[in-house]
Design brief:
Largest sheet: none
Number of helices: 5
Distance between the termini: 37 Å
Oligomer: single chain
Shape: globular
Order of helices and strands: HHHHH
Strand content: under 5%
Number of strands: 0
Length: 134
């Protein structure tokens, strides 16, 4: 179960590669929600598992998921194609994680890694598209 958790943490931390947002009035909500995702990713990356256990990681993951949902909702109008792709990739990752929990073998863990890589790529593409806005 630990490799799955670390993969999820890696995927989530991939959102931190973008710069902060300072958007115009029409894009302020998108940029603000992106800033919230970055803050959540930072919290997750800085979580001290040995001190706080996995409960803090779960809490940070829940906050990140909530903030990511808000970002995707806010960004849908401007970046529909990229948002749809991120959501599809996130659903695929969730499915592979569920399969890996049920049967933690090499095949299912490999599928998690592949799904995580795709999610990282889709988040990167969304970030690249947002670079002009934020």
């Amino acid at each position: 179960m630990r490799p799955i958790t670390m993969t999820i943490v890696t995927v989530v931390a991939a959102t931190a590669f973008l710069g902060g947002c300072a958007g115009e009035e029409h894009s302020a909500a998108v940029c603000d929600s992106y800033d919230a995702v970055q803050a959540s990713a930072d919290d997750l990356r800085n979580a001290n598992i040995s001190e706080n256990g996995l409960s803090q990681v779960r809490t940070d993951l829940q906050a990140l998921r909530k903030n990511l949902e808000v970002l995707l909702d806010d960004a849908r109008e401007l970046y529909a194609t990229q948002v749809d792709t991120v959501q599809l990739a996130a659903e695929q990752l969730a499915g592979t994680v569920t399969a890996a929990k049920a049967d933690p073998g090499p095949m299912t863990l490999s599928a998690v890694g592949e799904a995580a890589a795709w999610l990282r790529e889709t988040v990167h593409r969304l970030g690249t598209a947002m670079a002009d806005t934020c």
